[in-house]
Amino acid sequence: MHTFYLEGSAAVGEIALLPKEEAQHARKVLRLTAGDEVCLLDGQGGRYAGKIVEVGESVSAELIEALPDNESNIHLTVWQGVPKADKAEWIVQKLTELGVSDFELLNMTRCVVKGNEKDGLKKQERLNRIARAAGKQRRRGTVPVVGTPVSPKQAARELNIRKFFSESWRSVMILLNKKRTVINTIRSINDGIILTTRNEDNVELSRYGSKKVLKIAQLHHDHRFDKKLVRDFKNRYGNVDIFALLTPQLVEEVAEMMKGRNRHTRLVYMPNFLEHYPTVNLNAEREKTVVAAGRLTEVKRFDLLIK
Q1: Where are the beta strands (DSSP E) in 150-298?
Q2: Is the Cβ–Cβ distance between 78 and 116 less than 8 Å?
Q3: Are 46 and 35 in contact (CB under 8 A)?
Q4: How many whole angstroms separate alpha carbon 239 and alpha carbon 265?
Q5: pLDDT in tens, 207-239
Q6: Longest dimension (CA), the chain
Q7: Using CA atoms, how far apart are residues 71 and 183, in angstroms rounded to an integer?
Q8: What is the spatial distance between Cα 269 and Cα 250, in angstroms, rounded to a whole number?
Q9: Other C-beta atoms within 10 Å of 217: how many?
Q10: What DSSP designation does 142 have?
């Protein structure tokens, strides 16, 4: 299925014209005819399955169905010092294919490439064409924009450095407050059971958990022999009563890591998934039933289970 950009935005059910260059490519190179299926992009986030309606001096296509958004939730802008030769073209092409949102070019003091404003605008136009072609190749609904080359001082003003550091400090304080809250909560519990499910919280549970509390730590992923995790298993789980791991192999590996260092913690195997599906028919009217447990947040992607 061939892909084309539209001339402006449109909606499902409407008939839209292809831009002149796209129409020429569809008519003379690809020799498409009425009824041929195509993928249509509006450059503003919209992606559509469509079909060619008419091929003549102009080419029109009908938007049949909206396709899922394939853009990342993270808006990533790359600030790039202007490189020599055609390296900028390669950078824009490959990073567009990887999902970068925008590009800003920097005229650095020691840049090899020097030119006047006219040359800079020509380069910008060419790079925008390359970004558009690369986005089309990946069927991205949004086209990255390559900005006009600026000096580092201009870039600093646009970036608002003070706001950048303010937001960075705010993020650090959020993480520190989260850690304090976890520690204070663990300290405040003097009976019953505490279950933590992340390494950083497991460490705090071992350090601050009361002897009167049953302290259960869990790791819901493979340790992959990460140096920090291995170091924590060896030295910072000493007061954890039970450590639950996903597979028997992980239990054996962690037992070897703790050997000679931790005789208190009991290692158990607790899988993420049910090994035996309940025989009770939970919903006789449905052919397939999925049971999932977890907090109802976007990051858990329960919407994928429904689809």
Answers
A1: 193-196, 214-218, 242-245, 266-269
A2: no
A3: no
A4: 7
A5: 999 999 999 999 877 777 888 999 999 999 999
A6: 83
A7: 38
A8: 8
A9: 25
A10: B
